[in-house]
Specification:
Structural class: alpha+beta
Number of strands: 12
Number of domains: 1
Order of helices and strands: HEHHEEHEHHHHEEEEHHHEEEE
Largest sheet: 8 strands, mixed
CATH superfamily: (Glycosyl)asparaginase
Helix content: 25-40%
CATH topology: Glutamine Phosphoribosylpyrophosphate, subunit 1, domain 1
Number of helices: 11
CATH class: Alpha Beta
């Protein structure tokens, strides 16, 4: 049976804050886009002690969601002139992953299991720069990064520059659950993968025709070494691409997961924000879960994911205002975006690029998929 994405939307568009405090209307703009929204029908708890969910913000309390989930397939997004068929592929891939996560949460699944499962699905989809479909390094190979975090106790695991692990997010969870460490990289991570007997593949498994074309185009631009090619080298197609998921489950627990192939033509074992906890991934039951996408170096410099949680924890604002502040004031235009879910089930989908592949669902019936400003009107 068909599901029309966006029909459950109950709240209208919000006005974001662009970098350095300049206000701009978001709907229809080519940069500085925002899609931060909350929705609810479930009544908040009343009486007795004030819960963490009721005390994290000075803003009026939003009704408590039973569960909520947001996912992303990368900031920047595809070109707006893609064919209807290509557009539908992106929408359906996001919808399928979102539906999987939503259904798991509705059945009482844990947030941690949900974010791992959803990110695995996105890693297996060649449209996205993570797992199958990862970008090429300067050497013509693939190196993948991922991290996962459990908001119950701040447990976390991450891997960087892995070359044969089919689903890096699963290896990241193994680091969290079966070692005393947080981050394993390169040959050490590969050895750990062998010991844990996770699924492994030849490095060529990750290659796609589309990513090879991007890599060859980037190399050709570098060879030109003129002003026009210098500008083209900053094209977001070469600088961005990540997948991620954040979730709140029925037990009130939060989790976040992020996975990426990194930058096209990256060198020297470069690792971005995806496996850096506090930069591209963060989850804490006291506040929120966050997954970032964009120029990793900037997310690391500003500690974007942890900073959003800190804004809430210290009473500086709501999830909505915290996400806006980090994306539109700390980051510069066209540097990326975040997805986040609060302990109350509020959802933020904030970005300052032309678009961001993203989707969200909750226990109130919301089910939305976005490539740009408006929800996709696609059917099963």
């Amino acid at each position: 049976m068909g599901e029309v994405f966006g029909l459950s939307r109950r709240l209208s568009t919000f006005v974001g804050v662009l970098a350095f405090g300049t206000a701009a209307a978001l709907d229809g703009c080519s940069t500085g886009q925002s899609s931060t929204e909350t929705g609810a029908t479930v009544a908040p708890a009343s009486g007795g002690e004030v819960t963490a969910a009721e005390s994290i913000s000075s803003a009026p309390a939003q009704p408590q969601m039973e569960y909520a989930i947001a996912i992303h397939g990368g900031a920047g997004g595809p070109s707006r002139d893609i064919s209807p068929e290509e557009r539908a592929k992106y929408g359906q891939a996001l919808a399928s992953a979102l539906r999987t996560g939503r259904d798991m949460l509705a059945k009482g699944g844990s947030a941690l299991d949900v974010v791992e499962t959803v990110v695995r699905a996105l890693e297996d989809e060649a449209l996205f720069n993570a797992g199958k479909g990862a970008v090429f390094t300067h050497a013509g190979t693939h190196e993948l990064d991922a991290s996962i975090m459990d908001g119950r106790d701040l447990s976390t695991g991450a891997v960087g520059a892995v070359r044969t692990v089919k689903n890096p997010i699963t290896l990241a969870r193994a680091v969290m659950e079966h070692t005393r460490h947080v981050l394993l990289v390169g040959d050490g991570a590969e050895q750990f993968a062998k010991e844990r007997k996770v699924d492994r593949v030849n490095n060529s498994y990750f290659s796609t025709k589309h990513r090879r074309q991007q890599w060859e185009e980037k190399k050709a631009l570098e060879r030109q070494r003129d002003p026009s090619s210098a500008a083209a080298l900053n094209d977001r197609r070469f600088l961005m691409g990540t997948v991620g998921a954040v979730a709140l489950d029925k037990n009130g627990h939060l989790a976040a997961a992020t996975s990426t192939g990194g930058l096209t033509d990256k060198r020297w074992g470069r690792i971005g924000d995806a496996p850096i906890v506090g930069a591209g991934t963060y989850a804490d039951n006291k506040t929120c879960a966050v997954s970032g996408t964009g120029i990793g170096e900037e997310f690391i410099r500003h500690g974007v994911a942890r900073s959003i949680a800190a804004e809430i924890e210290h009473g500086a604002g709501s999830l909505d205002s915290a996400a806006k502040k980090l994306v539109h004031q700390r980051l510069k235009p066209d540097q990326g975006g975040v997805i986040a879910v609060s302990v109350r089930g509020e959802i933020a989908l904030e970005y300052n690029t032309d678009g961001m592949l993203r989707a969200a669902a909750d226990s109130a019936g919301r089910f939305e998929v976005f490539l740009w400003e408006s929800p996709e009107q696609l059917q099963d």
